Every structure is written in C-alpha cells, then in structure tokens.
Amino acid sequence: MIVEKYRVNSDEISVKAAGSEISSVRKKNITKTGIRVYDGKHVGVSGWLGEVGEKTALTRAKAALSGGIDYPFTPAAKIKDSRRIGEKLFDDSGFILEMESLAAWLKKEFPQFIFSSPGLKMETSSVSLSNDTGLDLRSEISAAGIEFLYKLKTSGSIMDGYFGHVGKNWDMTAYKNYAAGILSAHLNEIALPAEGKMPVVFSTGDGLILGKLIRELNPKIYGSGASLFSGKSGHMLFSEKFSVFHSRNMENIFLPFFDAEGTIPEHGQFAFIKNGIFISPYTDKRYAAQYGLPLTAAAEADYDGIPQPSIGRLEFGRSGKTIKELLGGRKAVFVLIASGGDYTPDGGFGTPVQTSFLFDGEKLLGRLPELQLKSHLNNMFGGDFIGVSEDPVMPLSTDRYLAAEMEVRRL
Amino acid sequence: MYKFPDNLYCDVRLEKVKSASISYTKGALEESRERETSGACIRVFDGQRWYFSNITDTDVIQNEITKLAALARPDQHITAHPLVRRFQPNQAEIIHFSENNISLVPVSKKNDLLRALFPIIGAEPAICTWTAVYSDFHAITEFYSSLGARIKFDRQLCGINISVSMASGDKKFSDKFSAGFDTISPLHAIGPELKEHLGKCRDFLLNAKEVVPGKYPVILSPEVAGVFAHESFGHKSEADFMMGDENMRKEWTIGKKVGADMLSITDDGSLPGSGYTPFDDEGTKCSRTWLVKDGRLAGRLHSVETAAELGEEPTGNCRAVNFEYEPIVRMTATCIEPGTLTKDGLFAGVKDGLFVETFKHGSGLSTFTIAPSLAYWIKDGKIAWPVKVSVISGNVMETLGLIDGLSDKLELKTRVGGGCGKMEQWPLPVGFGGPYVRVKELSVM
Questions:
Q1: Does A226 contact chain B (CB < 8 Å)?
Q2: Sign of torsion over alpha carbons A18, A22, A24, A28
Q3: CATH fold of B9-207, please?
Q4: What is the ipTM metric for this complex?
Q5: Is the omega angle on the peptide bond into residue B427 within 30 degrees of 0, that is, cis?
Q6: Mean pLDDT computed over B37-57
Q7: pTM for this prediction
Q8: Which of residues 360-379 of B touch A (CB under 8 A)?
Q9: What domains are there in chain A, each with its CATH number?
Q10: Residue A20 reports pLDDT greater than 90
Q11: How far from A111 is each of A151, A154, A364, CA to CA, in Å?
Q12: Which of A26, A49, A308 lies at the smallest CB-CB distance from B52?
C-alpha cells in the first residue's frame, strides 16, 4: 500500500476597491490536505482543512479503498524537486499603500471613470505532492494579481472594461501606462471602418475563442469518438502557423510544474497541435492508458479528490513577429470584452463584442461600437489564422496577442 | 460567545458543511467523496474601512477578532453610523432539514440512486460517452455580531447532472441533463424526464439545421427565461454596482419604466431550492424583493453597506460562496412572474421564430447573451425542427420592453454543481425561473 499526501496552501492579502476608493482589506491563509492510498488496483482519498486531521483522513482513505475506484497505475516515485518563482513584493502595509496610491492616481487622472476591483491581491500559493516511494515535489508561486474594472460615469452598464496583470513582477509605471492606454482609447469613440472580414486580435489569456478547442481536446470526448478531432491524430487540421501546448512552465502559467499525479512533462510542455497538425488530446494516467494516448501531465484534483484530466493553461506557438508586423500595416479590432458567445456543435462561432478598440499593432486608437463576430473553428485557426505575437499584451504580462480574420459587423 | 472590541462593529460567520460527490464516466466509478469542512469569516468595520479574515481553525476566532481590531481605527460613535444602524440584531434558529438531512443518507444509497439511471443512458444508441454526477451539501451557518445578533440556520441541496456526448458520422452534439431538489426523494422519480431529454438530444443530433442569422421573435423556456432575468436584470439590480456612481443612481430611480407593462421580476430567498436562505450572511432576514413591477423599477438588492449608501433598507442579499470569502451583494432566487397566456397560446403568436429550450451559459452587460443548447424553429405557431444557434443576444433595456407574452405558470429551477459567478466568487447556488416568455425580436447568430 502506498500513501500519498497532496497539500495546497494559499496565503494572501487582498484589497478591494469600490467607487474608486479602497474599501476593505482581507487576510487569508488556508491549507487543504488530502491523503491518497493506493493498493495497486484501487485508490481511496480523504482530506481535511487546516493543520489537524491527518490521522482521521488516513483511516477514511483506507476505508474508501473498498469503494471500488479503479486506479491500477503506479504513483510517481523517486523524484525530488522543489521550485519557486517570485518573491513577496511588499509587506502587507506596503501593499495597501501601493494600491491606495494606484487607486488615487486612477481617480485623479481619469475622473471620467469609476473604478472597482474584486481584489487587488498578493498571494503565495504552495502545492506539494509526496509519498512513501520517494516522491517529493514542491511548488511555490508568489504573484500579484492587480485587476481593475472600469465604467464611464455616463454609462448605464455595470462595467465597460477592465485592465489587469497577474505576474511575479511589479512596475507601477508600466501598469499605469497600460491602464492609460486602454482608458484613453475608451474615451475616444470611433466608427468601425467597414463591416466585413478583418483582423481581430485577442489576448491569449482570453478563454472565449479557446472554448471549442478545449472541449474537443477532452480525452473522454475524444476517445469515445464524439470529438471533432476523433480519429484525426496526425492530420493537418489547422494553419501551419498554429501550435497549442499544454504548459507546466511555472514562469509563464503560474501553476505548479507537476500535475496532480506527479507527472512532469518533458521540456515542461506537451504539444496538442503542432504546426497545424493535431497530435493528441490532454490526458492523465487513466485516459492515456484507456485510449492508448501520450501522457500529457494534465491531471488536476481537489485536495481530497481523485485526479481527473483538465486542460490547465494553454500556451501558443509564437510567430517570432510583433503584432504590428503580423498585421502588416492593417488596422484590427482588439477585443477587450466579448461576453456570452459560443460555438455550434460543428464549430460555427458567434459572439457579441461589448468593448473593443481599433488597434494599429502598437496603440489602441479608439473605442469601437458594440460589434458581433462570426467565424468557424476551422477558419479562425486555419486559413484565417494570422498568428501569435512575440510581444506581450503589456510589459509585465505573459499573455500574447492572437490574431485571426473574422467577419465583423455592428451589433 | 465572543468578546467583541469596543467602538468597532464586528461579526463572525461560522460554517459547517457536509457534502457528498459521486461521479461515473461510462459506468466506471471515478469519484466517491464525502467531505466535512468548517471555517469562519470574521469582519470588522471602523466606519471607514472593512477588515476581513477567513480561517479554518475556529478555536482561534477570538485571536483573529483581536488582530483585525488592531488594524482598524475605533470610533466611539460607531453604533450611530448609518451603515451599522441598518444591521438587524436577529436572534433565531431555523433548522429546516433535521428530518430529511441529506448528510444522514448513506453514500451507498446515493450511489444506488445514481446507478439506477444507467440503463436509461445505456439504452440511447447515439451516446458515445457520458458522465453522471450526484452531488449534495448540507450547510449549517451560525452568525454572531457585536450588536447582539445570534442566528443559526441550515441549507441543503442535492441533485444529479448527466452530461452526454453524441455522434452520428460527422455530426456531434453534447448536452447536459440536470435535476436538483432540496431533499433526496424527488430524485427517485427523474428517470422518465431523463429518457425524454436524451430522446430530444438524439433528434437534435440527427436533424438540427443551421439557423439563418437574423432578428426573430424568440420564446424562452422557463429555465432560459430565468437565466435571462438573472443575467439581463438581476446583476444590474445588485446595488454594489452603483457604489460611488451618481449616474447609475439617476438612471435607476425607483418607478422608472424599464420593461413591458406585463413584466414583473422578483428575488426571494424564502423560495425552496438553490436560492433558499432564511438569512443572508450578515444576518439580515431574507424576503421577497420586487425588482420590476408592472414594467417599472421597483427595488434593488442590497447589503447593509449598499443600503446605507443609497439611503434604502437591506434586503437580505449579502452572501458569500463559502467561509473563505466575505459576503457581497448576490441574488437568491430570481424569477420572472407569470402572465396570463397558455403555453399553446404563447406559441400561436409566432409565425416564424425561435424556441430556446435549454442553454449552455448566459451573460449580461449592456448586451445580454444566451448560448442555446436545444433550440427549435417555430413555424406557424408550432415547434417545427431543431436548429443550431451559437448565441442569441439583445440590448438589455430594449429587450425587456420587447417582451410581449408570458405564459401562466411559474417553473422554478434548482441546480447543483454549478451556480452564479461574480468577481472571484463562484459557484454560488442561486435559483431562477419564470413562465415561458415571448420576446418580439432578438438577434440570433
């Protein structure tokens, strides 16, 4: 019998803004631990919050073995690795002062807007996975998440846009410049130059356009034959410029370098799609074995749960060019908020765009009216795909620009 | 129970939650978990700013109160503060689920309940893969405040979600069946409804045509109407969005015409199901709040803080997703009130249009959106054929004014495993519902 411990801790300070003022401070330090027991055929899991509960959890996990959850896989063993990124940028009072200063600057420089934030955070999150066969993996990530929502005082909407950054570094000047770029552009209403097909640019952190891709890469759906990609491994499905990776690169994704089963991908990433060729869906040990697929280190679990396959954070093959070079002198629609859109079962895509800007590859030129976008999965990452930029969306960010041609109309 | 600091407002919310989750994929057990968690959220208010702490060790609550108080600036007039004056020092114990407490049902019985549905799923030939999940929780909340509030109440939900993926040649379709209640016995009777739903999914897979994009009359099922009310209007009614926003307050004056005369929308934490909570998470008693009455703005959803800011009274809508978060303004159960038409009469009024039966998700800013799952073309007042639709959308305020028919029965929906997301807090169980709702025109893509 192998006993394994999976421990997750979040230590954070969070400051909330409402009506352009700092309204509250929250301190949180919560530890959650799970005990997994493997007998070579089954797995049993139980967990607890806080510091006390291991003995009871072990008893419950052993009892849960008889529950019959198959797990004939060998837990990761004999790997010892500990990695850390980031440092605590401020002490608690320093962080509060920095955020008060930022909120005051926004209020003074952009009095046309009201700013709020669900939480301006500084957090250290730690994950460890260890067992009695020599596995000892630890990940510690210290990062700040500074995101503001904004709305024009004259707007009837509950929010008009946002700007934010999640990362291990902090540069007040860079952040202010980024915010100023968006806010200044928002104040400048301009017309859509023309309806029809044109470049549309998203941040690679935007989940909307990736939703269908993520669904079709689900191993349960893929393996059963119900995915658009089923049976097409090795086929050229998209543009040769389009590559998608599952990344465990902590510096880029701010997630642990190992998955919930202790798998560490070779070179820190696995390619689902490489140069347009579909390779594999994401997998954990169960689904890799069940369907004869490569193991992609995509297991995620609640602290007291059984690992399940989960897409995690995607990274994209970059073009080697800036977004300005990719656009080649053309103007594009940069999408800030496209809420509520989706795909049809066979890949047709449509969405309203609530907030977007005309973009020349360097500067947001002005705010466009509400739009609607239309495309298809095969086109937006196929013949209409333009590329992913080398330059980030803002200097502190790991997100890049992703551009594709789409049908653009006024809403 | 606790020694609260002088010249500060302080409250403590403790939660004990027992939950169960059982998950199968294609008949193979993947998860069977029983969980017990407890923790506390402590709040201190000094008249200027709030301070929060969230902890798992409830033995150190008194220490945390002291630590938070040290960050705050005491105010000898704190009890006269307009915000503090609005707290309700309720004293009550409402345990609604003692006889049918879901946590007392053995997990083996819950497992049997779920497995009883497998033959129905297995009998559907178009299904390639499926996941069946049973989940429940029973939560006990205790609330204590420096004003003398002393409250204890419970909440409970249980339900089953079945996700299916179907294929026939190149045709693919995925959908979900959900059934939720606040006691377990109704779950024994959902088999026929599941079978009917899977049949509809197969029909959709085999026969759905692409919709021609355009603007059409649309009928929303009660489930979709509830989501529409939630996304298009419910979030706008959450008064924290008006904090520091003079323009919004002028835009949203009580009595303003915001929709068709037949339209009324309510939010009510006393309704059974996902949105049930007898008190909110700052001790305010929940009740029915009219958001829209006969087409006019009638009320807002408040915390004590937003009520004080706007000079109104709290409504019992300050909720947190769990003890790890401070409460913020949230909905409970938001419904469009029924009208007078029969369902057939409502459909009869559409020559060419769309019926949206189920949805994948929705959102609401100035434009609301709903991503349909099962949708059908209406021809000459009857459901004609299934259609594939990416999204329906419309300007919120225009759409509320374009509602021109409501059926005469309210259906309230309860879901488990998902819920409403706001800021960083997801998923909060909420209820939603309505009658069948006809909108003169919506954009269909």
A1: yes
A2: positive
A3: PmbA/TldD fold (3.30.2290)
A4: 0.90
A5: yes
A6: 96
A7: 0.93
A8: 360-371
A9: 2-186 (3.30.2290.10), 190-208+318-410 (no CATH), 218-310 (no CATH)
A10: no
A11: 11, 11, 20
A12: A26
